[in-house]
Structure formats: structure tokens, C-alpha cells
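Researcher: Let's run the pair from yesterday's discussion. Sequence first, then C-alpha cells, for each.
Model: Starting with the first of the pair.
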Amino acid sequence: MLASPSFEPASQPLASAPGDAASLARTPDDKAMLRAAVELTRDLGEAKAAIFWPDMLASALIGYAALAGAILSANMGIAIACGVLSALAFYRALLFIHELSHIHRTALPGFRFVWNVLVGIPMLTPSFMYEGVHPLHHARTRYGTAEDPEYLPLALMKPWSLPVFLLTAILLPVALLVRSAVLTPLGVIIPPLRRLVWARASALAINPAFRRRPPEGDFARMVFWQELGASLWAWFLIGWSATHGWRPLLIGIGVIALGAVLNQARTLVAHLWENEGETMTVTGQYLDSVNVPPPGWLTVLWAPVGLRYHALHHLLPSVPYHALGEAHRRLTAELGTGSTYVKSSYAGLFPLLGRLVRSTMGQRSGV
């Protein structure tokens, strides 16, 4: 596993092996890089409807068509191929939830509603599960600390933690179904349960210590309608399956589980996970994050919707996914191959996984 080659050619030399996590936390800010990141991308901040809408709609359409093929096909090979295609398409469509957590609420009129109707609610993952949560991951004083909902020092944990982290994603579709069909309705009549479910099971977070604050105002009203839609859909799925057969639902659960595992693998390499809770500089956060730039083409499958530029996204969280490639080209040309900027560029999924595994193997001694 440690020697597994990348499926993609290296676009930049690999960064050095895991080192002193504390030194990364205390990395001083590279002011030239931060200034260039702002100045060179001033014209790239607009979320373009002509890109967002066709991309999201096509991904959802392919996902549903391929899912129908997986359910209806009598040929096992064709059914499996359709299931994999459906998982990849739905995975891309679902990851627009990341963009929704960043774009201004007045941008792309109707996009949030349509995405929730076509993708978020059918996948039992409405946008409220990321909106209001993901921005905390970008907060200057929260990143990499105990208050970051999307951070764990995985590189400093035991080797067994990685397969456990990856395989728990298989349970996600069933957990979401139980949440929407059982826990949410019960929470209406049992307020303490409602508060518990909201605090502990209403966010796409990986930090088990994270507790979500109660929603307020317009956001609370949005949560109400999204949860109602998800609960009605969950009841429909169970009722239909109970009367017409469970095969379609089980295939759907398998498709979503495959996408969830792929996303969990992507999460494993989105950062270096080397911070032990210290507050980090912006440059330290950048160097603890990962870009996997071209020419590798498989990256668009496992890190779609701009997530191949995750480190750059931490520098410029307001730049939409479709502009990150251009931003990367400009910054690379301006700052050069010996700059701090290129130190967050890596060759592909497997070298990054290998680095993470090697780091956890160093944690074998001790309790």
C-alpha cells in the first residue's frame, strides 16, 4: 500500500515527508503570496450561472439515469457499471453543497432551492447540513483546533484510525435515513431529543467533539422546510419499499455509500492533518492543505467541483470552483516554482495516502 503508484503523473515534486507539526502551526505568513492571491484574482469572484446550472443539472440527470439502469438491468455487469457511474455523478452533484456554503445567498437565484429538490433532499443531505458549518472550518482562529468541525489530527493518530475513518462512510446512507425518518419526527414531540439530534447529528463534520448551535431567524425557517422535505422523502422511500420491494432502495443505498466512501477518501487527502490544535497562520493553514493540479485527469473524479485545489480554496474561499484553475495558473506563473505557493501541490491520491499512512505508522508506539 505504501508503495502504490499514483494513477496520475506528477505535476509538481512531492513535498517533504511529514515533519514537526508544531513548526507548521507556527509558520509565519508569506505576505507576498497572500497579497498576490488577492491582487491576481480580483476578477474571478463571480459565480457564473452558465457554468453552475448545466454542471449541476447534468450531474444529477446522469446520476438518476444511471441509477435507473442499475435498478432495471438484468445483466449484473451492466448493473454494476451503471451503479458506479451513478455514484460518481451523484458524488459530483452532491459536492455542490460545498459551493452553496460559500456563495452569497443572493447569487445564483433559485440554485439553492433546485439543488435541494433534485439532490440534497433525495440524498437526505439538505444544504443546511453544511451551510453554517463549513465556514467555521475557514475561520482564522478555528482551523485545526478543537473548535473546527472538519479537522482531526489524523496524521498523528494510530494506523487503525484510517480504515475506521474510511469505512464508517459505508454507514452514512442508513444513518441519514434513520435521522430523517425516525429521529427528526420524534424530535418534534421530544424536545431534548431534538436538541441532541441538532447538536450531534445535523452537520457534515468529522470532529466528534463538535456541537452545533441551534438555528435562528431565516436560517431556522429554511432548516424547517428542508427537514420536512427530507422526512417526507424518507417515509416515502420506506413505504414504497415495504409495498413494492426493497431492491431499488438497497441499490440506491449502495450507490450513495460508494460515493460516501469516495468522499471520505478525498477527505483523507484534503489536508495533511498534522496540526495538534494550535491556532495557525493563514500560510500554515495553506501548507497543511492540498492541491492536486493538472495534468492528472482522474482527480476530476475523486476531487470534483474544484476540490483538487483545496489548498488554494483556503487562500481564496470566495472564488467559485470554476475559477480556481485559472487562479492556480496565475499564481504559479507569478510566484514561480520555488515559492511557498507550490509547496502545497502534490502528485495524486495514492502518494498522499501513502504519506498519511507513513505518518500514522510513526504513532504505533505508546498508547
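Model: Moving on to the second of the pair.
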Amino acid sequence: MRRLELLSPRPLRGESWLDALPALPDTAGAYRWFYADVTAGEYSAVFIFMLGSLFSPRYSVGAPRGALPLQHSAVNFALYHRGRGVRWVLSEYPRALVCQGGRELLIGRSRLEYTRDGRVCLEVDEQCAPFGGAVHARLELQPESFSTEEVQLVPGVPHYWRTLAPRARAWLSVDSEGVRAEGHGYHDTNHGAELLGGRLPGWHWARMHGPEETVVEYHLPGGVAPLRVTASARGTSCERWPVRAEPLRTRVTGWGLRVPERLTSGPGVGTEPRLLESSPFYARLEARQGGLDVMGEVADFRRFHSPFIRWMAHFRTRVERQA
């Protein structure tokens, strides 16, 4: 396949890790989230720290009226065992704090930290949503590859993506479940100056961990060339690849959302993925085969802004009045 554009023209081996958190959003409608996932034995987990929460019906309604992103900060955590959901956390708070000279983000009792020795630590101390028991979870990432430069997802539209640790050693502990596991981790960030679901209606993406290399593909609407990040001990690159000539084969979930029949990221996985999460506007999928592990997401943010979907989202969220 011919490559269209090399966005990171040289391997990034030897570049330093982030010294501090990127700038946080401060205007109505803006957002930033920090995403991390881990595959460790029979377990998978996802941690997301959100400022201007994409899952918040309150921010969806309030942003056009001037609501600010830090007023709708949120922590999301999901734990899966053999493809089955075990715990779900989604808690929204009216503020977030940055500490430790810009290295640490606090939302409620949970925190994200970039340590001085180059690790990423995420700790969740929460209650399951909407009603449920306590969850105490920790993920520590030791990057094995370095970050890419920030990429604008669609030309002329203010939404951006950056892989921060596309391939990492990962240690997961969930004290409330008695889980201790080690595996592969992934970490990135998205941010934008306007609500998703307008000029950028949605996307689907997937990351594949192989024995020596991680590949991430980001597919965008409107004929925009997809992005591909390749990361290993040899370096990290980010490229745009040609749009597929043949249409992507999809299936329809019970909520009517179209998701890929197969998760592909680089060589891909040749089996139908399992649905880890399924909703009218969002799906999370996973597939494992032959030493390859793929996790992906599909999002249609236009659907989320419908009054009915916003109403449904209340039932998967806890709202805390004080941080």
C-alpha cells in the first residue's frame, strides 16, 4: 500500500517523555480527555480522565449556553474479564485540579500523574455507576515507545489527537476485585475547541499490540485519509494512509450502531470482535488471536446529542456535587 503522508518524518527514539500535562481546555464546548487501556492475561481495563466530558448530557446541553469544560470533569473506568464487563465507573464532578507543577490531574479522589522517571500512573477511587460498590484501581505504564506529534484529525476542524505512550509495559491492580496482572498498555489524548458531533460527527479507531510492535489506526468520516501510528523499541511514526477503495464491512448492533465486522490495525485480527460496551452512540470492541490483541471504539456523537440518548446517559453516570 502506498503511503500518502509521513507526519512524524523520523523515529522518535530518544525523545524525552512529557514533563507536564498538556494544556487543559478553558472555553465553552472545548474538551480534552486522557485515555489509557491495558490487556493483562484474562483481564482488560480502560481508564479515561475527561475535561468537558463526552459522556455528559449536562455538558451537551450546557456548552452552547457557556458551560465550561472543567465544570464537567469526569472519571471513567471499566474492567473486563474474558470479554465480560465486571465493573463500570462514570462519575462527573464540577471541577478538576492540576498539582505537582503540572504533572498531576485530580478529579474527585482519582488522579492521573506523569512521574519524573517517565511513568504514567492512573488511580481510580470511585463508586460504580449509577449505584454500586467501591472501586479502587491503579494502572502504571512504563513506555516502551515514545509519543507522536499532535495531529489534526480533519483539516480545518479543531479536533486533535496524540499518542502519548502507544506501547507500554503495564501493571494493573484492582484492589476491590483482588486483581493483580501485568501486560501491555496504551495511552493517548484527544482535545478540541468545539463539541463533537457537529463538524466532526464521529470516528472509529483500533490499536493492536503484537509481540514486537503496536499499530494504531484512526478512521475518519468524509473521505479523510486514515491515520496510522506504528510504535516499537525502534521508534514511533505517524502517517496518513490512502482511503480504502472497498467499503468497510460492518454489522449493526442491537442499538442500531454500525461497527466493523473485524477489527483491523495493521495486520489486524481475523476474528469477529466481542462487544465490550454497546450503546446507541458508542461501542467498545476487543479481539485476541495468535498473540495479537486489538481493542477499538466506534463513536457517533451526533446520536449522543439527541434528547432521548442524553436522557438514557443519566442512568450510567453518577454526578458528584463536590470534588
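Researcher: Give me one sentence on the second I can quote.
Model: Residues 307-313 form the longest helix (7 residues).
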